[in-house]
UniProtKB/TrEMBL annotation:
InterPro entries: DUF8057. This is Uncharacterized protein. It comes from the Archaea. It comes from Halosimplex aquaticum. Residues 106-136 have a biased composition (Basic and acidic residues).
């Protein structure tokens, strides 16, 4: 039994897009470590119903495969350590409303929002006026 089978198993009946991309990424990592399971990848891929979700599954698989190769360049690394780092590592989610924007723990000023990229207010008439430099 391989690392993928131990963590995920193959006895699923339905997958949503998030579950499918997670499994595809893990299958890619497993393949980079020498554990080939194309039947499972095809089953996960076929579970998706749109071209977009199928492409997301393919992308996740390729990303897992590439990151697995980078983490274990010549096969010298311990397979379980690579698996633990890439697949079973802590998932970090960031709430868009909680992104720090100031102070020592905040975003740097260079990447913080500035007024030049904000959308104009549609209630202001200036947003639809012709720019001054076009007037003679």
């Amino acid at each position: 039994m391989g690392l993928y089978d131990e963590k995920y198993g193959t006895a699923w009946s339905a997958l949503d897009q998030d579950e499918a991309t997670e499994r595809a990424y893990a299958l890619g990592v497993a393949e980079s470590l020498g554990e080939y399971n194309r039947e499972e990848f095809e089953a996960v891929h076929d579970e998706m119903d749109t071209a977009y979700t199928k492409s997301m599954v393919e992308l996740a698989f390729r990303e897992g495969k590439n990151e697995g190769r980078e983490a274990a360049p010549a096969g010298d690394a311990d397979e379980e350590a690579v698996w633990d780092e890439l697949v079973e590592g802590d998932v970090v989610t960031i709430d868009e409303d909680d992104v720090p924007t100031g102070g020592r723990d905040g975003l740097p000023e260079a990447v913080d929002k500035f007024g030049g990229i904000e959308k104009p207010n549609p209630d202001e008439i200036d947003a639809t006026d012709r720019p001054d430099f076009l007037d003679k």
